[in-house]
Amino acid sequence: METGSCGDPGRESEPADAGGALRVRxxxxxxxxxxxxxxxxxxxxxxxxxxxxxxxxxxxxxxRGLRACGFLVTLAVLRGERPALSADQIVAAIECAAFLQxxxxxxxxADIVSSDNCLLMYxxxxxFGLLELHHRAALFICDMYDxxxxxxxxxxxxxxxxxxxxxxxxxFVAVGTHSPAVxxxxxxxxxxxxxxxxxxxxxxxxxxxxxxxxxxxxxTVLSNKLYxxxxxxxxxxxVVESCFCYDALTNEWTTFAxxxxxxxxxxxxxxxxxxxxxxxxYRRAITSSVEAYDIATGAWSFLCQTPRPVADAARAKAxxxxxxxxxxxxxxxxxxxxxxxxDEWVLITTxxxxxxxxxxxxxxxxxLYVMRNGPTDDFLRCLMDCYNITxxxxxxxxxxxxxxxxxxxxxxxRGDSAFTVNRMLTLEYAIxxxxxxxxxxxxxxxxSGSVWTFLLRLPKTRKGTAERGVRDSDGQxxxxxxxxx
Length: 485
Hints:
Mean pLDDT: 89
Helix content: 10-25%
Protein name: BTB domain-containing protein
Number of strands: 33
CATH class of the largest domain: Mainly Beta
Shape: globular
Oligomer: single chain
Keywords: Kelch repeat, Repeat
Pfam families: BTB (PF00651), Kelch_KLHDC2_KLHL20_DRC7 (PF24681)
CATH superfamily of the largest domain: Kelch-type beta propeller
Organism: Aldrovandia affinis
CATH architecture of the largest domain: 6 Propeller
């Protein structure tokens, strides 16, 4: 790389936030780029413009050793685009992200990690020292290691394999719907269990705190911690004031502040060190209120309200973007994106289906899968539509999907699999080729009633000493009405 020589110490360097065009030469290509764009997003250029070196005042900078295609991808991402990348572009982009220290590009690369490119991403990130992407790709490989083991053994150095094998894959975790009761009463729905895929059984993880409610509450996972906000107790729907956080690494529960607006039956989303409480009900009135909890400061603040009042809205995160379903029975499903940086709601697409609307939504790569009831309110055989956020196209998946006791509405995606569960059966689907195909069956979650599901990375030491598989104590069956976490 060309670093330049020191400038005249008596002459002030150009301000770090100064605008104006700058020519950047990479290989045989010259790019005209706004200085402010580079200053705000690239640590390399920020340091260069503040250094006092001659190059910080010149009209052209020559970057040696990088490839033009990688810098082109960098500029596209800085303009707000989310390009799909070939293998060659991925390597060139990783090189640029590492040398120029472009956080937005690193984040985009992490968003597009998939089973098709994870090994390449992992290896290239290790070579160029892009540690954040290296770790994200390693976690993805760990989650799909059974499928990728042979290919990884052929294509990765031994030390990279050892790092993947040192990690713990995400575990499928479930908890029943629980409303706080008298301390002395044993309530099996307070038990959180994880699926031991090796033994094909559900194992005890922990108990909910006595005062915690998962009935009409908001549940989400962020940074491997489970957050429970609100919920109700009793038929009067008294809102539970305390909020709870479970740390999967330490096996500890803590409490934190409750939202300013009491609410239940709302949507909770975890994103970039914030929790977003969206809509819900209070005193049987549906609200448009939205609040965010800043984990660093421990404070809630009000945000832009939803486009219309909404309760129990399906939501999913795809490519680090937040999507929420708003439906108007019985025909229309609107999908809005909440954009945290601008604090605004944007209508992304509308799905119109006769006598049907979206009940559950999950994301896989850049696809949103919307599960909806079949014809004439048939909830046992659901239909599924796929919306691709890159192309903006809808696709109807062929066939109908068995939704016995609401299992499909508990779908959680890990790698290229979707896990669903009810009392009778845990069913894993393989996602790909424009359809979901049943892959394997394991025993169901041993609890009656509604189920919340999510993913947590559990320490190997704790999983190895986990208690025996749990058994349902009441021996009764019931109609499940599960909710995805």
